[in-house]
């Protein structure tokens, strides 16, 4: 197996670190190349044992998968690096938000099989949620699905579903982090030090996440379990429900989805 990452930034490193730490792919089977962060690439070579190369012919030779992990804006440059050496058997796996399969095939020049994937940075701790959309001619889908299961839960969607997945779970962690930031700031307002506010919020979120991973009850049931009649939670929830929280979240996701659509326009 030879997997080549064009791009060694946040997302690529979350994926290959997840794969290696889970033991699904050997570090020696992973090749990375980048443009801007060559020092970081060398650090991954030292810490994980992956191969680093800037020789495009060597990188593309006999590759099973090439992962397109640059920003969408850099895709044309990446395609120029790959096009002269791309072999027909190589499958292209795009992490890039909003770039359609048809454009990838066109710029790669050979109509290779393509899968668009939309993981999130929780791949680093093997807890990503991965949307996957395949081109019609993509064979042995199970191999890719299995590789991706090493760093998260997979949802196979049609390509038209990718904009929604990108908003919901690709960008999703950032939306949740933003809420945790506000939570920590509010704890400071209550009188906690900055350090304690961060520590309390972090552990609240970790503990809640662990509960969710172990208990099957609905969110509503878990919330109800905490809410004593005429107690503190009820008082807080009464205030919380005065705000249009769901509307805020729907609009947030809508903007992210629309940007994903926009990225696909050339
Ligand atoms: N960060 C996230 O949470 C997620 C990001 N994505 C997608 O992943 C992609 C990468 O995002 P990040 O990792 O956050 O960006 P990043 O800025 O951390 O990494 C981009 C990488 O692309 C490399 N690159 C740029 N031009 C190149 C070229 N011509 N040849 C080879 N490498 C080149 C850069 O050197 C860098 O290593 C984006 O397309 C984004 O839409 C998808 C899901 C989640
Ligand atoms: O912000 C972005 O465009 C990328 C896609 C999903 C998460 N990060």
Automatic annotation (TrEMBL):
GO terms for molecular function: pyrroline-5-carboxylate reductase activity. Residues 159-263 form the Pyrroline-5-carboxylate reductase dimerisation domain. The keyword Aminoacyl-tRNA synthetase does not apply. It is found in: Cytoplasm. Residues 2-98 form the Pyrroline-5-carboxylate reductase catalytic N-terminal domain. Pfam families: F420_oxidored (PF03807), P5CR_dimer (PF14748). The keyword Amino-acid biosynthesis applies. NCBIfam families: proC. HAMAP family: P5C_reductase (MF_01925). This is Pyrroline-5-carboxylate reductase. It comes from Jeotgalicoccus halotolerans.
